[in-house]
Design a protein that fits this description.
The structure is a single chain. The protein has a 3-stranded antiparallel β-sheet, with no helix packed on it. A hairpin with a 2-residue loop joins strand 1 (about 5-10) and strand 2. It has helices spanning about 40-65, 100-110, 115-120; strands at about 5-10, 10-15, 25, 70-80, 85-95, 125-135. It is of the alpha+beta class and about 140 residues long. It is globular.
């Protein structure tokens, strides 16, 4: 078992990661009857794309001896109303590294093959922007 989700009422859930015991609270967004006091389930999906992409970039960076510590991603989500679903995911990477041009291309390609991104419905628009800054 990966996790256990408990409905807490008032459109809020608590997910417990079985292996670690870590907890995540979700709340329905304000535009869908919620309080917007925590990540919504669709926020979690969108955020997972960025977390996955930077994680596998980190794996490859470690293999190449490249330091990405301090790099960030601004994650954006657009919803569509009919049917209600994620319409667009946008990731703005701000990568701090002294990687060469060739290494940066390798890392960008790795990010574009993260399993979460590849698992999204093909109808969901994806905009991925990489901005590199030398350390």
């Amino acid at each position: 078992m990966l996790s256990k989700i408990t409905y807490l009422g008032n459109l809020r859930t608590e997910s417990v990661h079985i292996q670690s015991g870590n907890q995540i609270i979700t709340d329905a967004p304000i535009d869908n009857h919620g309080k917007g006091e925590a990540f919504s389930p669709t926020d979690m999906v969108t955020n997972a794309v960025g977390a996955c992409a930077i994680t596998i970039m980190g794996i490859k960076a470690n293999e190449l001896g490249i330091d990405l510590i301090g790099s960030t991603i601004n994650v954006y989500k657009e919803m569509q109303s009919e049917p209600r679903r994620i319409k667009k995911v946008t990731l703005h990477f701000h990568l701090l590294s002294n990687a060469s041009k060739k290494e940066r291309i390798i890392l960008e390609r790795v990010a574009m093959h993260c399993p979460v991104l590849l698992s999204l419905n093909e109808e969901i628009e994806k905009e991925i922007i990489f901005n590199w800054t030398d350390k």
